[in-house]
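Worked Example 4.2. Read the sequence first, then its structure tokens.
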Amino acid sequence: MDQWINWVEYDELLEGRHNAPHNLLGLHSFGRGQVLTVYRPEAERVFITDMSGKNELELEEIGEGSGFFGKYIPRKNYRAPYKVKVQYSENDVIEYVDPYCFEPQIGDEDLYYFAEGKHYEIYKKLGAHPMTINGVKGTYFAVWAPHARAVSVAGSFNMWDGRLHHMRTLQVSGVYELFIPGVEPGAIYKYQILTRTGEVLMKADPYANCSELRPANASVVADISGFKWNDTKWMREREKKDRNTLRKEPMAIYEVHIGSWHKKDDGTEDGFYTYREMAPMLAEYVKKMGYTHVELMGIAEHPFDGSWGYQVTGYYAPTRRYGSPRDFMYFVDYMHEKGIHVILDWVPAHFPKDEHGLGRFDGQPLYEHPDPRRGEHPHWGTYIFNYGKREVENFLIANGLFWLKEFHVDGLRVDAVASMLYLDYGKDDGEWLPNEKGGNENYDAINLFRHMNEQFEKQCPGTEIIAEESTAWAGVTSPVSMNGLGFLFKWNMGWMNDFLEYMKLDPYFRANNHGKLTFSMQYAYSENFIQVLSHDEVVHGKGSMIEKMPGEYEDKFANLRTAYGFMYGHPGKKLLFMGQEFAQFREWSEKRSLDWELLDYDMHQKMQAYVRELNKLYEKYDAMYVNDCEPIGFEWMSCDNANMSTVSFVRRGSSAKEQLLFICNFTPVQYEEYRTGVPCAGEYTKILSSDDEKFGGTGVNVKKVVKAEKIECEKKEYSIELNLPPMSVTVFKFDYK
């Protein structure tokens, strides 16, 4: 016995400190014979059989009450795989295939590329993966925990006893792995981690594809392979598109929080619809309203509803609140069937400190930066990823690719980009650490974005990667080859802030703030922008869009129609948060459904009809989108008429045909015989007036067709005269001559 047992390893195993249990457990050749060992605490007797249940051999317990059983046999009678029969008592006997007779499924090449930060499908190796090895069905578990003293799998399949399934570390990678036969999809598990200081942690799997429904937080084994997709044509067409193509396509985005768009009135606490139930409802509405894209607020697994999905614990798992991973696949597939693009909000900026999550994962800072001046947001109470660590970089880049490839998602809106780019973002003096040159730029985050966007574009062409970046950082949407960050689009936060401040003003004061309306065109082509009126603007006491508007009841609606009309005319793709299309009065809350009952009221119905008409025109006339990112697509006709608070401008499309003239009046005053310059002679045909009675307006008569006159106005050779409605946007189409 002394010859075939390493007593140091024996002690480590019994003390739960062994990180290479396959050295001691399982089937081993020894001399001309074999050694068979099993560790099963509390067992009375242990037997080994072949896979047919024959050739039974009883093992001997080595050390009274140790739970360690073994035997040397002078012949090589057994081969892997084989079965273990454990008798706890006369009537309590279990059988299983020994986990310690299987080779690793992660190779040297996997470990090398992971350490380099370039294993772009690492999620197929780490995590929990149902598979069959040597004819045996089970689940392969693998986790990265380089600071751990030992790691075990504990779950519903082993009575949450971490002693039963110790994992093996691979080389010096910090990766632990174990194949456990018999574990099927639906099994619940965590990793039991023994830290260097002797603390025992129970952690959810960072690469898990499914989780328990909160407040439970264990990981769930899921098989996400084999889903029957019906969007082959969609994906093939997507792959043909490049950056230039995407910049010229229409994007009218409907931003949605799945849990509160509609709730069931069935008496349940949450009232959530599943992904499958939501898909046809949402698709029908989005198509009816004329949107081209849906953008889903955070659906990666998160513990707290009130975080709206922006404090993530399960980066590789669609939240269980609305169903299974396959249910979410169905959702995306259904949207594609109806011609709707799906964008996900994605959060690589920070993560919460929940005990089961990524924080201090193996007892030390692992995913987060170890220096709190780099690794924590003091005012958010969250950890910041260590972007300079290659395995963390790999975790994030592979995660983005995971959603784009495995779930066929069409784009990612990257949250809080500014907080990643600036080391001092949201921090006071003494709370941040400068870079090596003494500045506040985060070089590691910059490199991450460039690496990330290069791979997204290379591996998932045609996808739309969008930065929520709130500063004037240069080159956010410039290609990496031009030293940019490589995003395709950027949220236009500057426009949003200025424009909303302008719209909140009583019209009397707008004349003195005219620059807030027009300044955005000074930088409109510095990036590829999306004009956004997002969820961030209708929470935390900011009021809904309709509530921001000044005046009495009908004045508010007139202001909002004018605001939306100007937004759709302004260069840049479009995004509007749910509920604002029908002028929801209450601030949004994730705790309740949108106030759909407001559509019983005339003005709300008409506002919804107006937004639907804007989307209809947006899709019909490419002047509203094809040259969003090119100076040729826009020209001021009048931008200096501050006293009257009016502006007019032209949007140009792909040809001289069907160009558009927008005339905006931001006062409640009707201007008769209003004249504005136009770009050419010819007829100007009205296609929209926000003041139309069918939209809730006053119905001021505007001629259907207005002919340009050769009368100079605002330095334009030609001009038109019309009866300009109060608080309105009027749109004409014309052919350039």
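Now turn to a second chain, presented in exactly the same format:
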Amino acid sequence: MALRSALSVRIVEGRDLPAKDITGSSDPYCIVKIDNEAIVRTATVWKTLSPFWGEEYEVHLQPTFHSVSIYVMDEDALSRDDVIGKVCITRAMLAEHPKGYSGWVSLSEVDPNEEVQGEIHLRVELLEGEGGRRLRCTVLEARDLAKKDRNGASDPFVRVRYNGKTQESTVVKKSCYPRWNESFEFELPEPAGEKLCVEVWDWDLVSKNDFLGKDGRVHLVTLLDETTTAECRQEVAVNLVKLFLGQGLVKEFLDLLFELELAKPCEPNTLFRSNSLASKSMESFLKVTGMQYLHAVLGPIITRVFEEKKYVELDPSKVEIKDVGCSGLHRVQTESEVMEQGRQHLQSYLRELLDTISKSAPTCPPVIRAAFRQLFQRVGERFPEHQHAKFVAVTSFLCLRFFSPAIMTPKLFHLRETHADARTSRTLLLLAKAIQMVGNMDPAAGRAKEAWLAPLQPALQHGATQMKAFITRLVGTEEEDGGKGRLRSPPAAVVKEGLLFVHKTRGKGPLLSCAAKKLHFCLTGEALSFAKSPGAERIGSIALANIRAAEKVEEKSFGSCHVMQVVYVDENGQQETAYLQCKCVNELNQWLSALRKVCGNNPQMLCAYHPGVFRGDKWTCCHQKDRTGLGCDRTRHGVTLQDWSDPLDPDAEAQRLFQHLHGLQQPLREKYWELVKMEDPQNSPQVCGEGAPVPPGLSQLFEVLQDLEGCHRLLSPSPPASPALLELQT
């Protein structure tokens, strides 16, 4: 273990897990954390207490890491995910098994109240020279620091004071185990002056020479980033991206994030590697706008890997020796033969993928090209002496946060219907690793960490050259994308589509009278249309403005599960209901989420519905005999999935941001004055709590929030009165 800087983690399966859902089952997935920092997440295995994942990851470790924790979670689409338990593997345990450990480990309960205080590692030296004596203090690292921020971590930096002089280290974002390895020198007077004072502080923004603090004001986006917890930052980023994308302002929004992020003290080789709002927003932006492009680029190679199922392994410690030859003439392959064969297969996959990427610049969506063009220019201006950095900035998103995750887990990006088997997963992992090394634009660095990748070095070096040429074409002139101006998404872009089974009931209209039982449905920002097959001429459609509800149907209604109902009004103003069956519960929830998001602001949405069907002369759910009467259960328009594939609905995203900001008014105010006080202690208020004045940059935001809240209360419909079960007269 001491000789390696990375740990290979393979999550195989679980058994006898507790049931967390009312159905008597669970939807388990795993999260791997290094010292409480989430690194990877497995796919969810639905409806089982004995899940099989078969996923493998390689995580990089600091030399002083303490533990690796694997949390088993239960996913719930309609509420917060439950924690089933965790397995904690300490550094000492790994040292006892230098060749690795494989076996069953019992889950333990999670202690949310664990607290640590921390230590700091220093080196102090006395220097003699022609310029006199000097005191050098080297701050190496710290460990077990207290978690001071809401995201469960800290942003530590070191302040060193001596003889009236103060020097500060860089800030290590979101870490309780920071490494600085920075030295500070002070003139040593005669006689020696005061004691050397070293303080560790938690800072939530940047050092004093930061761009944001020059005029004593703090940008609202920075405040939002600093007051949003790590758990919420991904959701907030998605909301912001969809809001500005729908308004045609996503280019300006991302450019602002790039400007604020680059104003912080940073190194060119670590740009956008943290999980800041800028990084999360760009990652979400690629998923929202670039999934068709991703499928076009990765689809053929992913299909080839799944179909060929070739054995690919380059690590000598994991090579499996096999028999080869015809019957009666078997011989055992040598380790070098197996590895050479694996190298050829992997190199073939990598070559095909890089060739596809190289040719894909013209087909990349213009809005993505515009965003990367801005990023490329910003980084080039920020680091004029490191022109290499602007290429790495683009690949840090395109390769490390978009291509590689989709290669490792294609099912999560809808590239495949099922998870890969163990052999295919290993091939995909190695291919994703190769793309990451190409994206780093320095293949030699990967070879230094894992020597067994050396045979792949020529292909990686050639790939880096291809990638650089591709980025140059990708960020070409704006005229190549069809002129200047704001880039909007297509008004009728497909939100969701797929085959659904139609349950026939009494009613009129093209959907209910069609002879076909399975139709291809296509949901856009305008209508829910249907045809006999993909690509065929549509039979009819339901305008989104006419939809009144999208809800689940009781399983007993049709003897089938995963059925949803779409309540709508036809051309004659008559209310009709379409019953559509999905192939699985995941697909059902995705359809409901998409429909509710595009229709959630319709003014005549129903407040109640029937979860059953009207059969014979009554409803199967409540036995009412009035077919058009008020429903017996409330509708759930607000229950949606927070998924990148959800439709663009600027109003809905604005509502979610309003809810988030409404609960952050006091933290925003406190954070503002805290940052101002760091910049200018003389002109900042003594009180930073409720008694502090509202800063000018926030007063307008608070006024808007108050106006929106007043409008919301004014327009909110009153809840329907509960029906009386018994009326007494006197």
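Notes for the reader: Residues 6-96 form a domain with the Immunoglobulin-like fold (CATH 2.60.40.150). The chain has 18 helices and 25 strands.
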